[in-house]
Amino acid sequence: MADDADARPDRAVASPAVSPLADLDLWLLFAVTLVGVDNVSSVSPTFPQVVDVFGISRVQVGWVVTAYS
C-alpha cells in the first residue's frame, strides 16, 4: 500500500492552456461553413429568374437549394 501512495503525485500538474484558435479542425469547419453560406447567398437573388426561365415552382427551387447546400 505504501508503494501506491508513493506512485501518486501530491498535486496535479497543470497542462498548458491551449487556445481554441490553434485548433486547425475548428478553422476548417469555419471555412467550410463560410463557403457554404456564401455560395447559397450569392446565388439566391437569381431564384425568381430561375423560376421564370426554367418554368419550375418555388418549391422545386427550394429543393435545388437544399441539394446544393
Low-confidence stretches: none
How would you describe the shape?
rod-shaped
Main sheet: strands, sense, barrel: none
Number of distinct helices = 4
Give the % helix.
55-70%
Q: What is the count of β-strands?
A: 0
What is the structural class? mainly alpha
Chain oligomer state: single chain
* Averaged pLDDT: 81
Measured between the Cα atoms of the first and last residue, the distance is: 61 Å
Strand content: under 5%
Rg calc: 27 Å
Write down the secondary-structure element order: HHHH
Q: What features would you describe in this structure?
A:
There is one protein chain. The protein has a domain at 21-68. It has helices spanning 2-7, 24-43, 47-54, 58-68. Helix content is 65%, strand content 0%. It is rod-shaped. The longest helix is centred in the middle third of the chain and has 20 residues, at 24-43.
Q: Which key phrases capture this entry?
A:
rod-shaped, 4 helices, mainly alpha, 0% strand, 69 residues
Describe this structure in a few short sentences:
The chain has 69 residues and is mainly α.
Could you give the topology of this structure?
Elements: H1 2-7, H2 24-43, H3 47-54, H4 58-68
